[in-house]
Task: inverse folding
């Protein structure tokens, strides 16, 4: 007996190639706090350590409104303006 | 079977799946073992989705003769599985759905894919949230949904199997597999099946879809929340006494509504409670305003419980002794009537970062 799989195909986002990134030594790093407990401390520690090692500029931590919704448009624009790299976390 | 062409991810594009799995027998154990081995299904026995059964499910939906079976209705996170009508029919067959209910399921999936629902979060969170499907209008009687006694419970094929089909779609297509795509710490029983119908015959007010601008004979509402929290009052004819009990159920520091003032509640009134309230001359808006006034706690109590919150800006600056409502707008309290005889009703707290969606039932 032939039956269907219940899962079907997986969709993919249509994506173009991004411009090549700058070297880290010429880059600015911003931390994005995903608003889970402890995330800001961890992200700031990781970001500062990377900046120390590579010579990048550590800009600071920005925070989303809440963990479970996407980054707000105004914050996203702020990240685009202020960061070459963003360090963040997902889920817990 | 995986999509080879980026274009096929676009809504409205088509992707065809084939019956390419082979069963050696019609032994239900073999099908269950196959699903278990692949991480599919809800752990309960299933109906084999043969081509004949799936075609019959597709053919029986009103208007499906003109609806392309392989059109992508939505791409469902976190797996980003492509939900075509045919694939929804496959899962409807697996769930044991009677023929004819596919437009209800298709419309529910459209609603679930709405931005307001935030399905990525709903499916992936540690909270136990499950989508509740509410069926409204002529479809309730025409398709055999139970809007009366035990509407949340077992015994009605339409409620049971359509609710189960929605969960199978979340598991199989959306990839909300416990511990993988679904991080829910404990889960909840409504993750098996969560489907009711509005009791239009015993609703003393305008029906729910019309109140939210949906002018259609039949409609679905999807809201994503916890299991129902019961409240009862068997003694009074005073609407305030009935609704004060609802407010106490809403007013808990343990729900996601407490740290999120923009979150919704559904208050599902049994017909006898609704009658008491309406007989006193109260409208739905009166119910919403009363609950908004009563479901409050001191700001200091909220602050003691939550360092991380998403309250309205005005609330953040209030003094500790100000009585803060658990929602920032009376319309975040949605009211409808469902169930049968008896003086019980329920409150359904929301997951929080999600808003309910009501849509007409269409193919």
Result:
């Amino acid at each position: 007996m032939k039956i269907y799989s219940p899962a079907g195909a997986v969709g993919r986002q249509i994506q173009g190639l991004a411009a090549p990134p700058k070297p880290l030594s010429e880059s600015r790093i911003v931390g994005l706090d995903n608003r889970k407990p402890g995330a800001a401390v961890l992200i700031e520690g990781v970001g500062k350590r990377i900046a120390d090692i590579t010579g990048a500029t550590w800009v600071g931590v920005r925070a989303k409104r809440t963990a479970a919704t996407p980054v707000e448009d105004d914050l996203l624009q702020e990240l685009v303006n202020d960061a070459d790299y963003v360090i963040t976390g997902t889920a817990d | 079977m995986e999509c080879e062409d980026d274009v096929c991810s676009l809504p409205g594009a088509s992707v065809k799946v084939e019956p390419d799995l082979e069963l050696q027998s019609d032994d239900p154990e073999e099908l269950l073992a196959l699903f278990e081995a692949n991480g599919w299904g809800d752990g309960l026995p299933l109906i084999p989705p043969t081509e004949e059964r799936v075609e019959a499910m597709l053919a029986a939906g009103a208007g499906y003769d003109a609806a392309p079976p392989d059109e992508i209705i939505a791409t469902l996170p976190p797996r980003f599985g492509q939900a075509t009508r045919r694939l929804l029919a496959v899962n409807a067959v697996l769930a044991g759905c009677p023929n004819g209910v596919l437009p209800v399921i298709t419309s529910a999936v459209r609603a679930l894919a709405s931005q307001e629902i935030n399905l990525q979060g709903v499916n992936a969170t540690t909270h136990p949230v499950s989508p509740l499907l509410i069926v409204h209008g002529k479809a309730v009687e025409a398709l055999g949904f139970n809007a009366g006694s035990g509407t949340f419970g077992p015994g009605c094929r339409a409620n049971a199997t359509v609710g189960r089909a929605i969960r199978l779609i979340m598991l199989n297509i959306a990839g909300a597999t416990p511990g993988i795509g679904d991080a829910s710490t404990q889960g909840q029983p409504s993750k098996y099946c969560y489907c009711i119908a509005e009791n239009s015959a015993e609703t003393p007010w305008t029906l729910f879809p019309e109140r939210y601008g949906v002018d259609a004979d039949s409609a679905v509402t999807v809201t994503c929340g916890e299991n129902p929290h019961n409240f009862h009052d068997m003694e009074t004819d005073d609407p305030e006494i009935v609704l004060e009990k609802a407010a106490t159920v809403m007013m808990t520091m343990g729900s996601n509504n407490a740290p999120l003032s923009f979150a919704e509640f559904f208050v599902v009134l049994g017909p006898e409670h609704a009658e008491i309230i309406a007989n006193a001359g109260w409208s739905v808006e009166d119910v919403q305003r009363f609950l908004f006034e009563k479901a409050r706690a001191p700001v200091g109590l909220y602050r003691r419980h939550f360092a991380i919150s998403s309250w309205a800006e005005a609330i953040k600056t209030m003094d500790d002794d100000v009585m803060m409502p658990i929602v920032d707008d009376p319309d975040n309290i949605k009211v409808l009537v469902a169930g049968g005889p008896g003086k019980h009703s329920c409150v359904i707290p929301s997951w929080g970062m999600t808003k309910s969606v009501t849509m007409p039932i269409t193919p």
About this structure: Chain B touches chain A through 57 residues (CB under 8 Å). The longest strand of chain B covers residues 130-137.
